[in-house]
């Protein structure tokens, strides 16, 4: 009887493993999207909807195992088109890469599915916040290795906002990116984020007499003495 019980238990275990393997093999990125759509209704009226949607997606990604996350990244970066969900997933993966300081994955996302915003924040600001020079450097470097025209165009728009002065000097994008790389390499230690950055969606109109230069000088300003 014990042998029969062991055989039966083994059969159940094998069946469970096969079922789990079968379920895993069938997992697709669309499953994550469907789960997100199902849960997103509950946050549609959130005051900060873009951030709430992004945090929901972060929670769903945390429920995936490493292989499923890698599968989602492979699927996302190989798609020729970009849906609304694809863009949101790219934002989440950029943000999680920043938090983990996973520069190779960050570069993969920027050169393939570069999002222009992360929730309400312009991408260049999200990368520069916290003064992690590697992060903004990855954006600059990703232009040379961009996998498609859409990623290249998004990178140029972000850098053009961040570095308006080098942008005014040339209309050649490759030359412009070279100027950005040189400026950042030479100045990142001696610059501060521009708190009056005019491309913040929440930035209010400047009060009378305010320093207009702060709103037109780009993402960085010189450190105060």
Top keywords for this entry?
single chain, two-stranded antiparallel ribbon, mainly alpha, disordered N terminus, two-stranded antiparallel sheet
Can you walk me through this structure?
With 225 residues, the chain is mainly alpha-helical. Helix content is 66%, strand content 4%. The chain has 12 helices and 4 strands. The chain has helices at residues 2-26, 29-40, 49-62, 66-78, 84-100, 103-113, 123-128, 133-142, 149-162, 164-169, 173-187, 212-216; strands at 117-118, 121-122, 191-193, 220-222. It has a two-stranded antiparallel sheet. A hairpin with a 2-residue loop joins β1 and β2 (121-122). α3 packs across α5. The protein is globular.
What's the arrangement of secondary structure elements?
Blueprint: H1 2-26, H2 29-40, H3 49-62, H4 66-78, H5 84-100, H6 103-113, E1 117-118, E2 121-122, H7 123-128, H8 133-142, H9 149-162, H10 164-169, H11 173-187, E3 191-193, H12 212-216, E4 220-222
Antiparallel strand pairs: 1-2, 3-4
Mean pLDDT: 84
Strands of the biggest beta sheet: in what spatial order?
1-2
The arrangement of helices and strands along the chain is HHHHHHEEHHHHHEHE
Proportion of strand residues: under 5%
Radius of gyration: 23 Å
Q: Unreliable runs, pLDDT <50, ≥5 residues? A: 1-25
Write down the overall geometry: globular
**How many helical stretches?**
12
Number of strands: 4
What summary fits the major beta sheet?
2 strands, antiparallel
| End-to-end Cα distance | 85 Å
Structural class by helix and strand composition: mainly alpha
Helix content: 55-70%
């Amino acid at each position: 009887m014990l042998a029969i019980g062991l055989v039966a238990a083994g059969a159940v275990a094998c069946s469970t493993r096969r079922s789990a393997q079968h379920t895993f093999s069938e997992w697709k990125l669309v499953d994550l999207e469907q789960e997100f759509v199902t849960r997103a209704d509950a946050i549609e009226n959130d005051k900060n909807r873009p951030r709430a949607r992004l945090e929901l997606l972060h929670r769903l990604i945390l429920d995936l195992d490493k292989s499923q996350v890698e599968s989602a990244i492979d699927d996302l970066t190989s798609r020729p088109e970009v849906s609304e969900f694809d863009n949101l997933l790219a934002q989440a993966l950029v943000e999680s890469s920043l938090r983990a300081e996973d520069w190779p994955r960050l570069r993969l996302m920027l050169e393939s599915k570069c999002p222009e915003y992360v929730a309400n924040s312009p991408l260049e600001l999200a990368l520069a916040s916290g003064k992690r020079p590697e992060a903004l450097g990855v954006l600059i470097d990703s232009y040379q290795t961009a996998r498609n025209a859409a990623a290249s165009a998004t990178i140029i728009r972000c850098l053009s906002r961040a570095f308006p002065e080098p942008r005014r000097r040339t209309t050649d994008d490759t030359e412009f990116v070279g100027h950005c790389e040189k400026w950042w390499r030479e100045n990142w230690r001696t610059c501060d984020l521009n708190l009056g950055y005019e491309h913040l969606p929440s930035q209010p109109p400047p009060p009378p007499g305010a320093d207009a230069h702060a709103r037109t000088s780009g993402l960085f300003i010189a450190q105060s003495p």
